[in-house]
């Protein structure tokens, strides 16, 4: 009788351990998927940042190469009206 109870207890322990291991493996898969998604988002952000910085540098270079616009003189309206 005691052996049957011990066997049942051992089986229950073993099943609980297997369930725990399976659940743990599922959790690890979820964590890995999140890490992949985060890495992809980070890579995308880095790529877009590099494109933006290159575009801004190009715009600054173009602005530096272009001649400065001459300031317009304010002319008075000969009629005296605004």
List the helices and strands and how they pair.
Layout: H1 2-65
What can you tell me about this protein's structure?
- The protein is mainly alpha-helical.
- 78% of the residues lie in helices and 0% in strands.
- The chain contains 1 helix and no strands.
- It has one helix spanning 2-65.
- It is rod-shaped, with a radius of gyration of 36 Å.
Give a nutshell description of this structure.
This protein is mostly helical and 82 residues long. The protein is built from 1 helix and no strands.
Poorly predicted tracts of residues: none
* H-E order: H
Strand content bin: under 5%
Radius of gyration: 36 Å
Q: What is the count of helical runs?
A: 1
Which labels suit this protein?
single chain; 1 helix; mainly alpha; 82 residues; 78% helix
């Amino acid at each position: 009788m005691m052996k049957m109870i011990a066997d049942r207890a051992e089986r229950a322990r073993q099943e609980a351990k297997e369930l725990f291991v399976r659940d743990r493996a599922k959790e690890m898969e979820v964590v890995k998927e999140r890490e992949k998604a985060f890495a992809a988002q980070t890579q995308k952000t880095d790529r877009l940042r590099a494109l933006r910085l290159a575009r801004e540098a190009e715009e600054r270079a173009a602005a530096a190469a272009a001649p400065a616009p001459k300031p317009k003189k304010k002319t008075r309206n000969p009629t005296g009206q605004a």
